[in-house]
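> run fold AB hydrolase-1 domain-containing protein
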Amino acid sequence: MASKGTTTVSTVKTDDGVNLHVKVLGDDSTKKKPLLISLHGAPGLSTHMEPEASFAFLSDIFRVLVYDARGSGISDHIGPYTHDRWIKDVEILREWAGAEKFVLAGASYGSFIALDYAVLHGDRLNGLILRGAWADGKLGPMNALANILTSPKVKVDKARQVRVWSGTLHNDEDYSAALQEILPFYTPPEDESATATKEEKPESTEFLGVVKLYSATQNFAFSVNMPRFDVRDQLHTIKAPTLVVVGRHDHVTPVEYSQEIADKIPHARLEIFEKSGHSPPSDEPQKFEAVLADWLKAEVLPALK
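> ok
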């Protein structure tokens, strides 16, 4: 374990021997601060750096725990890569952090795991934050693929994009090529971009920290997990205060998907970011931080006192 200021970097071993690379921002040795765990998106592609960039500003109030999920980043690449296993890893990290209850945030694919967690373990949540979500794993990927294939923003190898969204990539190089050709699809139109310059802002926080891509993780997620993922009829059971965030120009997880989720979760607030694509935290960072801080102050923090 190594400490850097108020950040602690650890390797946490799970019950099946897998090592997870974990960072806790705003670490508190007394563990008096409430815990927020944030799940990155893009299995086999994204890392802890995406949620770290999005939620570091909360480290004065929360212990913000971010990590590379098994199969991603520098955590071990040992399956299974099922939602049940990824959820069990969340539980291990919650217990490791010494929290009975916590706030769970999920971005993009991480929001699917967060939704499944909320259905299974809703009594352990002080709050739920979802960004770029859908509730139907059969319809969602097919709609994303259709939007990519008809988008004027990108020119793609159609067969390769079919492989991405069906979980049948040939190898890691195939995954890398597929990603490179669709990066512009994740961003808002140029005239809707936030005040940050293109040089100052990455294409999307979704892909921060990528060193190597792992197609095996992506393939399992989209060939096995997604066809089984459907929480539409269970959303009403989620009782935790929920913030649902989506960009107006998000064509991967369009606004109507977030609207459906917010409508069915009893205590949910939908926030549409009018100048954002798939990643409001990087497209409209100031607004994202303000909205999140306001929601936490109104819906979550009072219950923690």
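The mean pLDDT is 92.
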